[in-house]
Amino acid sequence: MTRPRAESRALDPAARRALGGTFAELPQGITHYRLQGRTDGDLVVLIHGYSVGSFVWEPLERLLVAQGFATLSYDMPGHGFSDRPRLDYTRDLFREHLAALIATLAPDARLHLVGWSMGAMVASEFAMRHKDRVGSLFFVSPSGLPIRIGMLGRTAFVPVLGDLGFAMIGSASLRAAQANFFVDGRAPAAFLDCYDRQASFKGFARAMLSTLRCMNMDDFREGYAALGASGLRVDAVWARADRATPFANSRAFARLVPQARIHPLDGVGHASQFEAPELVASRLVLWLRGRIG
Q1: Who's near 158: CB < 8 A, 6+ residues apart?
Q2: What letter does residue 10 receive in the DSSP assignment?
Q3: Of residues 285 and 150, which shows the higher confidence score?
Q4: pLDDT band at 150 (very low <50, low <70, confident <90, very high)
Q5: What is the rounded CA–CA span in Å between residue 156 and residue 31?
Q6: With 53 labelled, which of 62, 66, 79, 115 sits at a CA distance of 20 to 30 A?
Q7: What is the rounded CA–CA span in Å between residue 268 and residue 173?
Q8: What is the pLDDT of residues 112-137, one digit of tens each?
């Protein structure tokens, strides 16, 4: 497959027709999603992380659907094939975007939120505002705790310089960073093909820069402490070899969310649900069966 050039295409109606899939018109922009199964019962909502789209869930999604679960995966604003509006990509934006999507597609569903990396922060924010709708939460290597930030990440917070840097090398640097999501330090071709397709649409790097600046992804301790005090049911898996959100952070997470059970994963990296979906499914299915019956 020929790698598409970064930011070379407009995400317009013609492009969406060519992409296929399903889209919803929301206040935060046109949103790409996959909905499988009924929406009047228990619904498993899969929330991806920073700089990737819902494609990261596809291997796990297939296993969940085969087990009879109804699932919803979607691309957050700026990610995947959803719109890249010119605004601040804050926690409020991502939380309200999810709320609008649920109100449109599954207003009567009981929700089980599965958040990976930054998606755990979005899931937590949503759950704290909509406790009556959320049956449980399941996290995969959650972000929101202190991490080492690379040169591009540090530069991003410098006015003007960060904008110039991301405009010139942001997409390439983010692509290279995907290797850190996998245990052997190499992103699979299938993963990179999906990543390149989303990055080929205009506005991607701008949205990623705003998300990096606004989400404060290395300090969500207050949010996790609130989740811990809420009593909501939480389970998590965390890769011991995780380079993006180090396993050592699981100890701080356990202190902040004491009701959470944390299951270490061996032989996988940060994107364990893509790298070894059966391994993650073995824990997630048990968790869901216990919550849903």
Answers
A1: none
A2: -
A3: 285
A4: low
A5: 26
A6: 66
A7: 22
A8: 999 999 999 999 999 999 999 999 99
Tokens of 182: 């996998």
Give the span between the Cα atoms of 72 and 93, in whole angstroms.
Answer: 19
Longest Cα separation, the chain: 53
Distance of CA 179 to the CA centre of its chain: 17
Cα dist. 2→188, 197, 227 in Å? Answer: 15, 10, 44
| Cα 18 to Cα 26: distance, rounded to the nearest angstrom | 21
- For residue 174 the two structure tokens come to 């983010």
Express each pLDDT in 177-197 by its tens digit: 999 999 999 999 999 999 999
Under DSSP, is residue 32 helix (H, G, I), strand (E, B) or coil?
strand
Q: For the chain, where are the E strands, in sequence order? A: 22-26, 29-36, 42-47, 70-74, 110-116, 134-140, 234-239, 261-265
User: CA–CA distance from 79 to each of 36, 57, 87, 225, 269 (Å)?
Assistant: 21, 14, 14, 28, 21
pTM of structure: 0.95
Tokens encoding 238 = 């965390």
Alpha-carbon torsion, ordered 282, 239, 56, 47, to 10 deg: 80
Give the end-to-end CA distance of the chain in Å, rounded to a whole number: 43
